[in-house]
Amino acid sequence: MKRLAFLVGLVAAALCVSLASANDWPNRQVRIVNTFAVGGAADVLARIVAEHLSTAFGHQFFVETRAGAAGSIGVQTVIAAPPDGYNFVITNLSLLALLPISNPKLGFDPRRDLSNIAYIAGTPIVLSVNPSRGFKTLDNFLDYARSSPKPMTYSSSGVGSNGHLLAETFAFKTGIKVEHVPYKGASQGLTDLVGGHIDFSAQTVASTSGQLRGGGLAGLAVTTSERLPDYPDIPTFKELGHPELVSTTWFSLSGPAGLPKDIVDKVNREVVRAMEKPEVQERLRRDGMIALPMSAEEFGRFVNEEAARYKPAIERAGLVGK
């Protein structure tokens, strides 16, 4: 009985410390790890969120970039951190729903090892090409690809990313041969596309928007269900006869498993408020991004639904174990 009373006392003490820590949080600067290259959609959203949270909570939230391995390197640094609310990580569709299916040796389980806090925003994928190639429509591109003796090379944000899955599914459906050239981030792949070193790109509108607006790249199709208001000349895959390619690459905020619910709920509320600001909404619209307000619980269910939705496509495209 004495031993049981001692153990109960220890648990109670730990709970009190945890509650005190949550009530006092934050009392120093907070790290948000950006898991992708500087300049991409994840980086832009990380800085929008960090700026708002710094103001909302009165302590600096700073962004630290740790790119590589399709984002898993950055995720694992946060998984290893204590669940005290001072380490967060930018996650996305690939990290939470796609990679755990395509890569059984990923090294972490997002349901077990992370506290998934908030949906930030989503952006569609655009199939873009160098205008100098003369592809005016998706059919032009397909005619060339089918007659080419060599596979069409393309960039994405990495093995197992949504762009990778989209391009492989598109190739499977249309009967063209493609070769994936993975990059650590969007900007490197887009630079090589502008330079004529690869044939096309399957990356987010947010990452490609600068080149699309400036004329450095031309968009042949986008994965939205309807045309984007800021890119009315880019048709959707759906209207071109490929409804299975309606897709959004979404980004989110996560932390280590075991984060106090009070901290999770506070951060979730402020992320939603950040995305609702008029100036942020304008920035998102310009980059083809859409924010969806969700509670932490709703976001957890959403992640599970996305994993179930994409699993058949990942298996069909032969990406398991890639």
Description:
This protein has 322 residues and is an alpha/beta fold. It has 12 helices and 10 strands. It has 2 domains: 164 residues, Bordetella uptake gene, domain 1 (D-Maltodextrin-Binding Protein, domain 2), CATH 3.40.190; 121 residues, 3-Layer(aba) Sandwich (D-Maltodextrin-Binding Protein, domain 2), CATH 3.40.190. The protein has a 5-stranded mixed sheet, sandwiched between helices. Strands 7-6-8-5-9 form a 5-stranded mixed sheet, with helices on both faces. Helix 2 packs across helix 10 and helix 4 packs across helix 12. It is globular. About 3% of the residues have low confidence.
The number of domains: 2
- CATH H-level superfamily of the largest domain: Bordetella uptake gene, domain 1
- β-strand percent reads 15-25%
- Percent of residues in helices: 40-55%
Report mean pLDDT, rounded to a whole number.
89
- CATH 2nd-level architecture of the largest domain: 3-Layer(aba) Sandwich
Tell me the major beta sheet: 5 strands, mixed
Q: What would you report as the Rg, rounded to the nearest angstrom? A: 21 Å
**Low confidence ranges:** 10-20
Tally of helical segments: 12
Named CATH topology of the largest domain: D-Maltodextrin-Binding Protein, domain 2
Strand order of the largest sheet: 2-1-3-10-4
By CATH reckoning, the class of the largest domain would read Alpha Beta
Globally, the shape reads: globular
Task: Count the E strands.
Answer: 10
Q: Tell me the distance between the termini.
A: 54 Å
Give the class from helix and strand content and strand pairing: alpha/beta
